[in-house]
């Protein structure tokens, strides 16, 4: 295995020293700005149209723009720990971040599709290639499924772009929903590893809850199957067999959460948000099962439980912890982050539970809570992400 070259790494600007730095910074800034732009567009205050229109932009960018950035930042950082080899850094990392950022600007500003599509297509396959190459070098087969899910995310993005090119809104929707449930599968895979570990470590427990591989792999396979149902269009209409699949996914995640639970998590700021986010990861497929069975009128509520509660909540909790650990700081977030974690969950509750009752008021409340949560993260972490580790080590 390669040794980290400290002198070479320390010569790089801090923001380009490891993947979490640029992608957590740019991704959270985009999460904040994109929601505010979406609100302005809904209120009729946007003076231009992005590629494909505002709805196409919103649903694509919250999954592939925001979600894609954070996924890239987390995995490009984690792979260094997994393999013991240096992660992507320096000019290569800056180039990858430039692909992501340029695609965001081009799509938002309504650039020609001949520009938008190649820029968008470049990012996720590049991340999957870097991950696959790093894992292959050390033959770390246990993490190959991560590359598989990344590759499927890239395929879902290509499906959206095909729909954009031919003017097919239904095809775009299929691709976005497939991607959203692939992100759920990835969160279940990664969360299933780190949440019990973080919980036991945060509580000072000596023994970690033993994983049940059959359950973990079954949920991953079920999540990919559910994503495939959306990619093919089957999941867009109520079906009893999909209700059964969603019910199994939701109950499986609840079972995992129950096994990890310890009452002490409520005393540790970096633990209870992880568990709440995973609870949303159980609520979302259960809500979708209810829609398939005719008990829920709008499947969008289940999709937003996943997008806002699970994805938004887990991202905020994970980046708050990862940023501290990889910058050499104690795992004690600023006190204001407690408010951020509360806000992201309030936003999810407003978007899912209040929307059928309060309509636009709930939508605005959800968006404001989301924006405020990520604004608090940026207020307390932006400088950290742009400055060297406090212990003088690379990364």
Automatic annotation (TrEMBL):
Organism in which the protein naturally occurs: Metapseudomonas lalkuanensis
InterPro entries membership: NnrS
Name of the protein this chain belongs to: NnrS family protein
Keyword Cell membrane: no
TM spans (from-to): 23-42, 62-79, 91-107, 113-132, 144-165, 177-199, 211-234, 240-258, 270-293, 305-324, 336-357, 363-386
Superkingdom assignment: Bacteria
Annotated keywords: Membrane, Transmembrane, Transmembrane helix
């Amino acid at each position: 295995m390669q040794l980290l070259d400290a002198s070479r790494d320390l010569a790089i600007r801090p923001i380009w020293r490891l993947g979490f730095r640029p992608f957590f910074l740019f991704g959270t800034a985009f999460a904040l700005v994109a929601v505010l732009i979406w609100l302005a567009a809904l209120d009729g205050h946007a003076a231009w149209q992005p590629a494909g229109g505002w709805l196409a932009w919103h649903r694509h960018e919250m999954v592939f723009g925001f979600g894609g950035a954070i996924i890239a930042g987390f995995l490009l950082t984690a792979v260094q720990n997994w393999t013991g080899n240096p992660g992507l850094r320096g000019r290569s990392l800056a180039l990858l971040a430039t692909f992501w950022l340029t695609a965001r600007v081009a799509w938002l500003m309504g650039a020609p599709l001949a520009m938008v599509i190649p820029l968008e297509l470049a990012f996720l396959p590049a991340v999957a290639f870097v991950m696959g190459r790093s894992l292959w070098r050390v033959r770390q087969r246990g993490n190959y499924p991560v590359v598989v899910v990344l590759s499927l995310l890239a395929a879902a993005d290509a499906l959206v772009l095909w729909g954009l090119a031919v003017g097919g809104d239904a095809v775009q929707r299929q691709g976005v929903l497939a991607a959203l449930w692939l992100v759920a599968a990835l969160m279940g895979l990664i969360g299933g590893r780190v949440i019990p570990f973080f919980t036991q470590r945060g509580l000072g427990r000596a023994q970690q809850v033993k994983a049940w591989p059959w359950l973990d792999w079954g949920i991953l396979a079920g999540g990919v199957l559910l994503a495939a149902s959306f990619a093919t269009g089957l999941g867009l209409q109520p079906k009893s067999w999909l209700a059964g699949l969603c019910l199994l996914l939701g109950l499986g995640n609840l079972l995992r959460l129950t096994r990890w639970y310890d009452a002490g998590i409520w005393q540790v700021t970096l633990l209870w948000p992880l568990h709440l986010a995973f609870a949303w990861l159980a609520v979302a497929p259960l809500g979708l099962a209810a829609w398939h069975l005719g008990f829920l009128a709008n499947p969008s509520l289940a999709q937003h439980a996943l997008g806002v509660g699970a994805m938004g909540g887990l991202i905020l909790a994970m980046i708050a912890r990862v940023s501290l650990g990889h910058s050499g700081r104690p795992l004690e977030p600023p006190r204001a982050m407690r408010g951020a974690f509360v806000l992201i969950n309030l936003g999810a509750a407003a978007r899912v539970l209040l929307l059928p009752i309060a309509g636009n008021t709930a939508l605005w409340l959800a968006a404001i809570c989301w924006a405020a949560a990520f604004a608090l993260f940026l207020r307390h972490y932006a400088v950290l992400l742009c400055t060297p580790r406090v212990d003088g080590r690379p990364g």
